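Example 3.2
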Amino acid sequence: MQLAHHPTHTRGLPVKDDMRRIYDRYFSSADYDARYPHPNHSTLQALWRHGLKQARQVLDLGCGNGRYALPLLQHTQAHVTACDISIQALFGLGERVRHHPEWHERLSLVHGDAMALSDATCYDHMLLLFGVLGHIETRSARLDTLRRLRELAAPDCKLMLTVPSVWRRRPLEALQSWWSHRQTRGDWHDIHFARTIDRHRVRFFYHLYGLNELRHELKLSGWRVTHAEAESVLPEWWITPRPWLNRLDALCARACPAAWGYGIRVVARTA
């Protein structure tokens, strides 16, 4: 196991320090693990359905403290490159694998964003889960991220990503954003919301996606969507602390149209 430190970039410029500080605070507190103690069962099962158990090189961009990297290390023989802008998240992941020396040679930790990844490795599977793409503040930066992943993709690579649905996520903030942008014709899919972390009130950015918009951005970046489905029906912070509800929601998500899920999950291949 190795940790590579790199500058974090957005549109070729360093990511705002406050974004790093927010996520470092989040992952160093007990709040994150209390809110999301387990993977989303539906997404975990989707990984296996789409061939991750046969993966050789996996990139988990926005890995956090190992929500999906740990099951990959446990259930596959793949080498996992876990990348995150939060050093505290990576420290947490490193601590979780410390007692599993058999995993150390199959895990590389990268502190940074997609631009920090080395050109030396091509990946047959890539993960951009937990709405990470939606937390990138500008459309050009989101496209840069998707294009960077395309550059690092092996032939016939699979990319699985999840984004927050514009029709289900944060309706009050979305309505406020629509109202404030009705004259300027700005992008009302861009919202800010507040959350208390370690007794501090902090603001997060989210870009809420429609399915057609997501397909279009992927196409512009050299990807083609081959599968789309609902990530969950209920909010993840409801279901991940409750295993029975997590599994029940996974069953319900199968019957839910992709665009109407709490989140949208797609699989894309290199175009």
